[in-house]
Amino acid sequence: MSSPQLNRVLGLRLVIVVVIGNILGSGVYKKVAPMAAELHSSGWILICWLLGGIITLLGALSNAEVAGLLADTGGEYAYYKKIYNRFFAFLFGWSLFAVIQTAAISSLAYVFAQSFNSIIPLPPLLASLADFSIGGVFYPFADFNVKLTAIVLIALLTWLNTKGIKTGAGVSTGILALVFVGIFTIIAFGLTNAHNPLVSTLQTKTNTGAPVTLSNIFTGMLSAFWAYQGWASIGYIGGEIKDAKATIPKGIAIGVLIIIALYLLVNATYLSLLPVAELEQIYKAGNKIAAVEAVRSFWGSNGALFISTLILITTLGCTNASILSGCRPYFAMAREGMFFPKVAQLNQANVPANSLLYQGIWASLLVLSGTFDQLTDMIIFAVFIYYGATTLGVFILRKKMPDAPRPYKVWGYPVVPAIMVVFCAGLVINTTFARPREAAIGLVLMLTGVPMYAWFVRKQQTAVPEKTY
Fold first, then answer.
1. Is the pLDDT reported for residue 262 higher than 50?
2. 3 state SS for the chain
3. Cβ–Cβ < 8 Å for 113, 142
4. Residues 122-175: pLDDT tens digits?
């Protein structure tokens, strides 16, 4: 008797929804402030948003060729077995579980809880333990009322996604429709009430008089890349997409192009409403959201309520999309004996419910571990290592499988993928020096995969003869 299989039920429309749903989260509302603190120039902020979008698109186009050739449940985990070897594939899958996907879920849920708290103030919880720390780095009980709300959200959405992938994708569709209406409302009203002409946002002169360095640009783009992060998650559910090898490349390209246009418009609106110096103060305050203050500037307290509600809805949608797609690689790993055995089981709705559960538990623990910006910088450091590895895979697969049918070939080969590989290396090196604590935490969590790989292989060898791939 054959084991239960995933259902191929998602067409192009829902693929685009999942791509956009995984990208469009908290970054569009929060990240203009840390970029202002780093770059001190409205023009350079927009340039970094554009450069971040272009680099993301180059990576997406390169990823699309690999996905079109090798599409399967697990995304890069499935690809890396053919491009590199089983160990590197496992290290990626473990990195997803340890930091990349689970920390993304945590940070999104955290911003949801912050927005909820700004609308309906939450009573303080365990305030006497707020100063308790682990090594002076982690403060698990600081803002515990917000963190507990984030954990409750993760639990509820994890439960919802055990009901079936179409249920989860349907929820994302409805939420995205509300989000787009809200964001375009901000753009329309914001630009008509702007304090500065839109053209003034293109000035590249800094308010400090100091020049913008290449390191400033890379560090500023960390913020932009968090906002663009998530497009590759569509590959994780390749086993549930109709005609995946043709549909995934189209869905990725269309989704990323829509997001680039949206981000440029909405960030130009923020910069027309608020001077860079004020955005810098918002960043230093630590407990303010740039989009809320921008809308408050022309719409007052009602505007602040509107944008807080919109952030609530947006982060709800992105958290849901991240939970939906994120658990599939662990399921694929477990089916090969390279993850905890229970994760390989499907429930009655043909959904990897145990994988969802494990993911939800670890994401909840990460909520307690750090602040929003600490989590996001850690994610970007880790994820760009693998973006570079996937793009390098375009060159490797062209040599390994030259005659294999490719529904999509990356535009501008070999220049486009080469630019992406070099950029990924540069960003990882710069982050190591500019954000050493976040880079170190991310690297340590990733490298816990080395002993885990040895443990799973040993366990697999004692249970059954080892499979070859």
1. yes
2. CCCCCCCCCECHHHHHHHHHHHHCCCHHHHCHHHHHHHHCCHHHHHHHHHHHHHHHHHHHHHHHHHHHHHCCECCHHHHHHHHCCHHHHHHHHHHHHHHHHHHHHHHHHHHHHHHHHHHCCCCCCCHHHCCCCECCCECCCCCHHHHHHHHHHHHHHHHHHCCCHHHHHHHHHHHHHHHHHHHHHHHHHHHHCCCCCHHHHHCCCCCCCCCCCHHHHHHHHHHHHHHHCCHHHHHHEHHHECCHHHHHHHHHHHHHHHHHHHHHHHHHHHHHHCCHHHHHHHHHHCCCCHHHHHHHHHHHHHHHHHHHHHHHHHHHHHHHHHHHHHCHHHHHHHHCCCCCHHHHCCCCCCCCHHHHHHHHHHHHHHHCCCCHHHHHHHHHHHHHHHHHHHHHHHHHHHHHCCCCCCCCCCCCCCHHHHHHHHHHHHHHHHHHHHCHHHHHHHHHHHHCHHHHHHHHHHHHHHHCCCCCC
3. no
4. 888 888 877 777 777 667 777 888 899 999 999 999 998 888 766 656 666 777
Rounded CA-CA distance 100/251 in Å is 22
The predicted model scores a pTM of 0.78
Q: How far apart are CA 44 and CA 201, in angstroms?
A: 9
- pLDDT over 70 percentage in the chain: 88
Identity of residue 65: E
Long-range contacts of the stretch 444-449 (C-beta < 8 A, 24+):
445/95, 445/98, 445/99, 445/378, 445/382, 446/91, 446/94, 446/95, 446/98, 446/99, 446/382, 446/385, 448/94, 448/98, 449/90, 449/91, 449/94, 449/95, 449/98
Using an 8 Å Cβ cutoff, are 66 and 74 in contact?
A: no
Amino acid (one-letter) located at 118: S
| Tokens describing residue 260 | 């680039």
| CA distance linking residue 382 with residue 147, whole number of Å | 23
pLDDT digits (tens, 9 = 90+) for 313-325: 888 888 887 888 7
Report the top-level CATH class of 12-460.
Answer: mainly alpha
